[in-house]
Structure formats: C-alpha cells, structure tokens
C-alpha cells in the first residue's frame, strides 16, 4: 500500500487516467508537489469521475488519499471508474454493471397473484416426525 499511496498522492496519475478515458475531463493538471496543488489535482479527478458516471457513494474524500486515511475507498473509486470506462469506448475493468429490468404488471395480473399461495409461506409436506423410532425397541 505504500507504493500505491506514493504513486497516487499527488493526483497527477489520477488526472491522466481520467483524461485517457475522456479527453479534456481535467483541464489543468498541476505538476508541482505543493500540498494544495496536489489536493486540487485529486479534487479535479473526483469531479471528473462523477461527471463520467461514478456514483457519489463510490467516490472518496480528498483527505482520504492525501492524508492516507482510507485507501480502500480510493480503490473502490478506481474500480467504479474502470466499469464506466466501457461507456467511452475504452476497455472496462471488473464485472459488467447490471442493467435495469423494469417489469410492468397489469391490474389483472396483480389481482391474480394475490390468490396464489407462495412456497415462502411454508408447506405442510415438509419435515415431520414420522418414521422416528427413538425409544422404541429395535425390530429385526
């Protein structure tokens, strides 16, 4: 994790990554090692990642990377960005995102479903005590 942190902490590589996915996502990349410029790079990456479709719950706070507080959230953000890269003609990383599968039922179908007893309610043909002979003598 030390190497991971050292490579990403200035935000330059992150900004280049986003620009490779979609050209011009980050307008200006600060190449200096000043703390506030590095944090600007990280923040620019986060804004670009959100604009590419990374959900807010899968991003991280700037201090998570800069102060090395939560590097796992950085990995989650990079994985999410890797899934979104396929939308921009780049190879995606990780599993394919699930597509929405909306189902529309008519009122008649909904009413018909109310009369059906689901197996979730249980069955009276399940396990019972028939065939148990605990305490009986053994018949041969």
From TrEMBL:
<dbReference type="InterPro" id="IPR000557">
    <property type="entry name" value="Calponin_repeat"/>
</dbReference>
<dbReference type="InterPro" id="IPR003096">
    <property type="entry name" value="SM22_calponin"/>
</dbReference>
<dbReference type="GO" id="GO:0005516">
    <property type="term" value="F:calmodulin binding"/>
</dbReference>
<dbReference type="GO" id="GO:0007015">
    <property type="term" value="P:actin filament organization"/>
</dbReference>
<keyword id="KW-0009">Actin-binding</keyword>
<dbReference type="InterPro" id="IPR050606">
    <property type="entry name" value="Calponin-like"/>
</dbReference>
<feature type="domain" description="Calponin-homology (CH)">
    <location>
        <begin position="1"/>
        <end position="86"/>
    </location>
</feature>
<dbReference type="GO" id="GO:0031032">
    <property type="term" value="P:actomyosin structure organization"/>
</dbReference>
<keyword id="KW-0112">Calmodulin-binding</keyword>
<dbReference type="InterPro" id="IPR001997">
    <property type="entry name" value="Calponin/LIMCH1"/>
</dbReference>
<dbReference type="Pfam" id="PF00307">
    <property type="entry name" value="CH"/>
</dbReference>
<protein>
    <recommendedName>
        <fullName>Calponin</fullName>
    </recommendedName>
</protein>
<comment type="similarity">
    <text>Belongs to the calponin family.</text>
</comment>
<dbReference type="InterPro" id="IPR036872">
    <property type="entry name" value="CH_dom_sf"/>
</dbReference>
<dbReference type="GO" id="GO:0015629">
    <property type="term" value="C:actin cytoskeleton"/>
</dbReference>
<keyword id="KW-0677">Repeat</keyword>
<dbReference type="Pfam" id="PF00402">
    <property type="entry name" value="Calponin"/>
</dbReference>
<dbReference type="InterPro" id="IPR001715">
    <property type="entry name" value="CH_dom"/>
</dbReference>
<dbReference type="GO" id="GO:0051015">
    <property type="term" value="F:actin filament binding"/>
</dbReference>
<comment type="function">
    <text>Thin filament-associated protein that is implicated in the regulation and modulation of smooth muscle contraction. It is capable of binding to actin, calmodulin and tropomyosin. The interaction of calponin with actin inhibits the actomyosin Mg-ATPase activity.</text>
</comment>
């Amino acid at each position: 994790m030390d190497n991971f942190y050292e490579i990403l902490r200035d935000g330059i590589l992150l900004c280049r990554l986003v620009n490779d996915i979609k050209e011009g996502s980050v307008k200006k990349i600060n190449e200096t090692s000043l703390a506030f410029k590095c944090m600007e790079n990280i923040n620019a990456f986060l804004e670009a990642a959100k604009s590419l479709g990374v959900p807010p719950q899968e991003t991280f706070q700037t201090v998570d990377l800069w102060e090395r507080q939560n590097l796992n959230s950085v990995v989650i953000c990079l994985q999410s960005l890797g899934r979104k890269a396929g939308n921009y003609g780049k190879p995606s990383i990780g599993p394919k995102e699930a597509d929405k599968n909306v189902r529309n039922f008519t009122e008649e179908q909904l009413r018909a479903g109310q009369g059906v007893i689901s197996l979730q309610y249980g069955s009276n043909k399940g396990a019972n005590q028939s065939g148990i002979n605990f305490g009986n003598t053994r018949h041969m």
